[in-house]
Automatic annotation (TrEMBL):
Gene transcribed to yield this protein: obgE
Protein name: GTPase Obg
Co-factor(s): Mg(2+)
Listed Pfam families: GTP1_OBG, MMR_HSR1
Chain residues that bind GTP: 169-176, 194-198, 216-219, 283-286, 312-314
Compartments it resides in: Cytoplasm
Segments for region (Disordered): 68-87
Organism: Hyunsoonleella pacifica
Matching SUPFAM superfamilies: Obg GTP-binding protein N-terminal domain, P-loop containing nucleoside triphosphate hydrolases
Molecular function via GO: GTP binding; GTPase activity; magnesium ion binding; ribosome binding
Amino acid sequence: MTEGNFVDYVKMYVASGKGGQGSAHLHREKYITKGGPDGGDGGRGGHVVIRGNSNLWTLHHLKFKKHIRAGHGEHGSKSRSTGADGEDAYVDVPLGTVVRDTETNTVIFEITEHGEEQIIVEGGKGGLGNWHFKSSTNQTPRYAQPGLPMEEKYITMELKVLADVGLVGFPNAGKSTLLSVITSAKPKIADYEFTTLKPNLGIVEYRDFKTFVMADIPGIIEGAAEGKGLGHYFLRHIERNSVLLFLIPADADNIKKQYDILLDELRRYNPEMLDKERLIAISKSDMLDEELKSELNTQLEGELPIPYLFISSVAQQGITQLKDKLWGILND
């Protein structure tokens, strides 16, 4: 999927259908001049339904579809015939989509399962026909209920990427390179910061045809929790990952300090992030000889509070061990 096709934020207007009007018909037939009321009920207006679809990875198909309207209910008719219900309008979204009320910014619901359906605006109820209102004192009611009006709402849909492993690191740490090596994904790779502007997803093939999903998230900078850099735009994608893989280059001035900054940004954005399983991969380690690697290992053993390993995406070093470690954490 190209970067321009990844859409994870859409604003939309949704409107349900009006309920059909009840009929005030009086039965008339040859030899039956006063047959009494027989007006049918109006049909229900159509709902607008948000539906989860695991085959979708982005909201791109809704990018230019800003107005969704359901069908109106038909009016009731004679012989107690009920009007047809309005046609429901279905909006398919990828799993991990959060639906908010645009005006209040409150979360209405989240879609996390395939086939899950949530009604965002309900269709108006159909009005009752006049035969409901007959009584011993009013045998020929000449009135019926109108249908209830439609509902309308402005909503915002945000996609939080659902992946097993989320790559976390500073810009230009080698996240896209690792994703291209460990999966079949083809992210944009270049030697400058913020090469990745949208999340990239790839499927990691493990032993015995087992797989898990890895997401390359745009790089974090200090102050991201306050919205600096790409700020909240990408931090929300990390919320849904089961495991956080911190990628720190071997040529960093201070590996422990970089890890602390990254962790602090996640904590300030959402403290619940710290409950996730974490692993550190020290990338670009092909530039270290055995002596340097041994020195760094000795230094980091007492400093880093979580497991770490050395990898090199370009030289294909440590990739198998990384897969083993991630699979073990995911299935612990």
